[in-house]
Amino acid sequence: MIILISLAPAFFAIDSSKSISNMYGNVQAIESYTQKVNTINLSNDNQKKLEEIKGELSAIRLEIEKSEVKDEIKPEQRFEVRKDIVLITKSYESILKSHEDYNQLGLTQNEHKGLKNNLKELKSFTEFAPWWVILMVSVSLGLGTMIGWKRIVVTIGEKIGKSHLSYAQGASAEMIAASTIGISTLLGLPVSTTHVLSSGVAGSMVSEGGLKNLQYKTVKNILIAWIVTIPVTVILSCGIFLGLYWVLN
Questions:
Q1: Per residue in 38-55, is it b (16+ CB within 10 Å) or e — as a string?
Q2: What is the reported pTM?
Q3: Which whole-number Å values give the CA distances from 80 to 10, 74, 129, in the listed order?
Q4: What is the DSSP string of 48-110?
Q5: Do 9 and 78 form a contact (C-beta atoms < 8 A)?
Q6: 135: number of CA atoms within 13 Å, CB side?
Q7: Cα 245 to chain center, whole Å?
Q8: Which of the two ends of the chain, N or C, has the fewest CB atoms closer than 10 A to its terminal CB?
Q9: Count of Cβ atoms closer than 10 Å to residue 89 Cβ
Q10: What is the rounded CA–CA span in Å between residue 22 and residue 41?
């Protein structure tokens, strides 16, 4: 989705399957609730965020009002509207998190609930993925596993521990991986299935024969990969972005 939004922001920056008139209604509702917020109990930082939110809401509303039917946004402005929506939702989430008691904001319970519901609806315009993108990702992952399964299986099953992985150890590692991923999904935490599973297998090997049952060379390589991945991807993504920015501008 990041690639699609970058290459075709006029189409993919905002969910085209959703009605812009609904966005207009969400923006108007959020503006109404924002005007009622009591800023006395807000910190200076949150007061600044609230003022920025007002400006971003106004910018979106004015952009939609340029259309006579209030159901379209000019292609060249769709990415700007996306940025405004992202900033609004993130800033409001921060304010609501630090003031969970709606009375502190000067809102009634219904107004507080309405504000959160409209923010959720507004957020759905930017947090989306077309069905064909999900299908392509699923097929790609499936094909990749079908082609490269042997290397994965050999590493997980034979190179983490000194003894071969037993059925009981494999089942235990898979159950731990599945439960960890399930809990992480509910909590919205990013996890890697490979990292979770390899850690589960390492744990099952330790339970079978202690730390001496681990192949430290493989474990060390896995740990190095985990550590190196973040800075390398940061540098690569930064370089690609700056390169594309230079070419396109």
A1: eeeebeeebeebbeebbe
A2: 0.71
A3: 10, 10, 19
A4: HHHHHHHHHHHHHHHHHHTSTTS----GGGHHHHHHHHHHHHHHHHHHHHH--SGGGGT--HH
A5: yes
A6: 3
A7: 23
A8: C
A9: 21
A10: 31
Measured distance CA(175)–CA(207) in Å, rounded: 16
What's the CA gap between 174 and 122, in Å, rounded?
A: 38
What string of pLDDT tens digits covers the 249 residues of the chain?
Answer: 888 888 888 889 999 889 999 999 999 999 999 999 988 888 899 999 999 999 999 999 999 988 776 678 888 899 999 999 999 999 999 999 888 888 888 899 999 999 999 999 999 999 999 999 999 999 998 998 888 888 888 888 888 988 888 888 889 999 999 999 999 988 888 888 888 888 899 999 998 888 888 888 888 888 898 889 889 999 999 998 888 878 876
The two tokens of residue 5 are: 């939004």
